[in-house]
Amino acid sequence: MAAVKSADPYEALINALPEKPQGRCIVVGAGKASAAMAAALEAAWPEVEMQGVVVTRYGHAVPTRRIRVVEAAHPVSDAMSEVASMLMMEQVKNLSAGDCVIALISGGGSSLMALPRQGISLADKQAVNKALLKSGATIQEMNTVRKQLSDIKGGRLALAALPARVITLIISDVPGDDPQSIASGPTVADTSTPQEAQDIIHRYGLELPENVLRVLNTPRKPVTPAEITQDVRLIATPSGALAAAASVAEKMGYTPLILGDALEGESAQLGIMMAGIARSIKRHGVPVKGPAVLLSGGETTVTIGAAGAGRGGRNTEFLLSLACALKGEEGIYAIAGDSDGIDGTEDAAGAIVTPETLSRSTLDAKATLAAHDSYSYFASSGDLVITGPTLTNVNDIRAVIVL
């Protein structure tokens, strides 16, 4: 909870606001935290005339007075994702140099904004997203493909707003905090290329609609830093969330060890690796002496085979793998969850592992893990962590306690 609280949209936004604009203030945005950010901006600037549109995930809206909030689907776009994108592009038309555009960007924005390039349809984009989500591709790789197929991502929203000044406030959810990757960088110049997108498609053996492949082979000038003004401000990050968790751990008498805010790879493999580190601490006091807490963030992947999968997300898969590797070892506990409150597409943020995890369920842990059905396992053991939407998003937070 300390990690999530560190990324509270109101507190984060208040500390990063620019001078109040003199001309028109247009607000656009996308992501799981965008509605909460919009409400915070309205509260901070009650006397400023503003209008605009932001899009967030279904169930993540909050009341606003001057900024319209649209809800759309995540992680695969729907018709409202396209409607929201068109409304945002309409908001930034015909602006002047004296106008100011505030872009409120957070994780999840890539699917929540969908404005397909000419020649492809929303159904084509949906097919691409579904294929990417099953492939095991990293978030950076997925967004490289998405940008090449979009008329709003990769800086094209900022390009449409010219000559107005564009200020982008970002709550980061991606490893490395690269603004190009967060929500596919709608207001940030794009350095990716169509060839890079094609390489990713070939690397993962993705079968995509012919329309998509044809558009990727159609040259298009990228949005460069020379074309758009880039005032980009990271207002909350995964590293800040881990630091907040570490501070709480110290006060409780644990030695915190932050392993990094950008861990990637297969969720199940990370679970095995983390079990090994925890055992080393317990038995040898290496790399730190217990009682200790291993903290990490980032976005792992779950590669789904042809047989498909049950219910689950990155965090519950990591935790079930960790539990299987630990085999009920005493003195080791863990919690992991997505800071937005939703692990994948389920209603849980994540789950908890204790030495009794493998004995509390009637399901076979290894078989359930192989079927990518980790949600079902933790539901049966009573170990799911259900918070509801937190209205922020700084990616996954993992903590392994070694007594």
What does it look like?
52% of the residues are buried. This protein has 15 helices and 12 strands. It has helices at residues 2-5, 9-14, 34-44, 79-91, 109-112, 122-135, 139-148, 156-161, 194-203, 210-216, 238-251, 267-284, 314-326, 365-370, 374-381, and strands spanning 25-30, 50-57, 67-72, 100-106, 165-171, 231-236, 255-263, 292-298, 332-338, 350-353, 384-385, 396-402. 36% of the residues lie in helices and 19% in strands. The mean pLDDT is 94. The two termini are 21 Å apart. It is globular, with a radius of gyration of 21 Å. α7 packs across α9 (194-203) and α12 packs across α13. Strands 3-2-1-4-5-6 form a 6-stranded parallel β-sheet, sandwiched between helices. It is an alpha/beta fold. Residues 293-396 form the MOFRL domain. Keywords: Kinase, Transferase. Residues 2-216 form the MOFRL-associated domain. This is Glycerate kinase. InterPro entries: GK-like_C_sf (IPR037035), GK_N_sf (IPR038614), MOFRL (IPR007835), MOFRL_assoc_dom (IPR025286), MOFRL_protein (IPR039760).
Note the main attributes of this structure.
403 residues, alpha/beta, 6-stranded parallel β-sheet, 6-stranded mixed β-sheet, 12 strands, 36% helix
Shape: globular
The residue fraction in helices comes out at 25-40%
How many strands appear in the DSSP assignment?
A: 12
Q: Over the alpha carbons, how many angstroms does the gyration radius reach?
A: 21 Å
Protein name: Glycerate kinase
Domain MOFRL: 293-396
GO molecular function, one term: kinase activity
InterPro entries: GK-like_C_sf (IPR037035), GK_N_sf (IPR038614), MOFRL (IPR007835), MOFRL_assoc_dom (IPR025286), MOFRL_protein (IPR039760)
